[in-house]
Amino acid sequence: MTHAKKTFSSSLFTLFLISCCLVLSVNIFAQGKTEVKVRHKTAAKAALPVMPSIVAEEKNTAAKTVPSNEQSTYPTRTHIVTLGIGQSLLFGRYSKNGEDKITADLYYAYRSSYTWDFIANVHQSKHKKSGRWAKIQGLALGIRGNLFHYDQFVPFVMGGLGLYRPQIEDGGVTSQRQTVLGWNAGAGVELQLQRHFAIGLIAHLHNPFKIKADGNRPKLKGRYAKCMMTASYIF
């Protein structure tokens, strides 16, 4: 019985080796035939004369497949520095301690595509009212989405999160100076005058989260908006 089992095992192993050899041989033969066919097709294409009409038709087809946005001068993979000047509008507790006034904001954006930009905003201003004051400052980060392109005119929306450090003074008592998270959202339009310069309008709302009262320090809750004219340098 032991000898019969060994003989049977040896036969199976031999059959397995033969099968593997057959499979490898078939694969090598098939690959060789495929390479020969590819070479024949390449040689045949190279031997065919190139007709001018075919070349023109291929060029026209390629031009039609290019997106309309790429045919414009709207640049991508670029950096944008923007200065915004306009009215800062205070709401909530901010408006009770400060007056609206004209301020300046600084924006940076990286234009990754025709539709999406990364955008960052830095702002700081102090607003006074009847012996009291409100100070707003923040770093707002977000994503800008272009709605459509009409020639060089582009309306857009944007939104994201930010870090804010607001403070108010009321009756000689200041609120706790604390960095808080908040959200921001906005919309605007942009007109690109040439490759490196653009102008526009933007409305930007900032909503810092509430700062709790601390002892005799008052709590701080509110929001503010900015309506600005913008000038951008693109590089």
Work out the count of structural domains. 2
The outline comes out as elongated
CATH class of the largest domain: Mainly Beta
Count of helix runs: 3
CATH topology grouping of the largest domain: Porin
Radius of gyration: 34 Å
N-end to C-end Cα span: 86 Å
CATH architecture annotation name of the largest domain: Beta Barrel
Unreliably modeled segments: 1-9, 61-71
Helical fraction equals 25-40%
Task: Give a short synopsis of this structure.
This protein is α+β, with helices and mostly antiparallel strands and 235 residues long.
Provide the descriptors you would attach to this structure in a database record:
disordered N terminus, alpha+beta, elongated, 28% helix, 235 residues, 2 domains, 8-stranded antiparallel β-barrel, Porin, 3 helices, 10 strands
Describe the structure.
By secondary structure, this protein is an alpha+beta fold. It has 2 domains: 2-69, no CATH class; 74-234, Porin (Beta Barrel), CATH 2.40.160. It has 3 helices and 10 strands; from the N terminus they run ααβαβββββββββ. The chain has helices spanning 2-47, 52-65, 93-97; strands at 78-92, 101-111, 116-129, 132-146, 153-164, 167-170, 173-174, 180-194, 197-208, 222-234. Strands 1-2-3-4-5-8-9-10 form an 8-stranded antiparallel beta barrel. The longest helix has 46 residues, at 2-47.
